[in-house]
Amino acid sequence: MRGIVFRGDCTLELATVPDPTPEVGEVVVEIKASGMCGSDLHFYRRPGSSPPPSVIAGHEPCGVVVAVGPGAMGPHARIGARVMVHHYSGCMGCPDCRSGWPQMCRTSPITVYGTDAHGAHAPYMKVAADTLVPLDERLSFEAGAAISCGTGTAWGAFERIGLTGRDTVAIFGQGPVGLSATLLAKAQGARVIALDIDETRRNTAKAFGADAVIDPRDGRVADAVREITRGRGASVVLETSGAAAANQDALDSVSPWGTVCLVGIGSELSFSLAKYLRSQLRILTSWTMSIQGQRACADFVVQQGIDLDTLFTDRWRLDQAKEAYQAFNRQSGGKGVFLM
Fold this sequence. Notes:
alpha/beta, Quinone Oxidoreductase, Chain A, domain 1, Rossmann fold, 2 domains, 7-stranded mixed beta sheet, 11 helices, Iditol 2-dehydrogenase, EC 1.1.1.1
């Protein structure tokens, strides 16, 4: 089969690899939808002088189980099961793994599908059976792909925060994670302030229910947030863009006793403790979601009737990979997905 491999310097190729065969405890999933994630761009853009990756990309997998290896356990390790994949695998014996957080495993090196092992930008993908998460019949494969990382990441952050309908949340960045956060926050009854430098994304956020939108390029983000919140600031700030300026604006836009949650990768943050100490802020980081969180997110989407398919503005075939990532690299518009 052929799958997408990033070669750095904004290049990629469709590499040919053997079709996967499940080993002990594994299954093979026929991929129906594989989402494009903003973190893909770190590998897509990496300098070509770096060691070239040897694995198929894609860590938002969704599809159907077509082969089951010996000893593969669990209710979803059966041929024909509609599944998402929690794209991490650990030792599965330590407390972190047993609690549904294999990405936090400290006992053995974790496997990140699409980085350390072949991912979902291919017709088939081999995974550990214990990474499978059921996909409700009422959800499309595209929606399952979104929940497998981007939307699930927004859900995981709100779980960490403890978001409620009483909150006003400022969401920095309206890419796939930020737009997912806007949808989820509105469904939970929160007031949403959406921020992005791209007009198209701001307009999409407004269409998704954002109560106010802000263009951060005017240089007065914190003032704008306070104008909207009658001088207090947002009770919750979620930073998804990974921009250094956004991290600083996030700290300056939150209310006293408020929570700042940092999700975006790619920048460094430093701040004066003296400036923020008396604000009693809670500063969190959040890394995707647990296996249980992924399923809870899917259940919530079904219960609330959230149309996650509206996140996707671009649907591609694998043989359009070059064009797809060139478009995605412009970071304008919504989310892209490969359909098999």
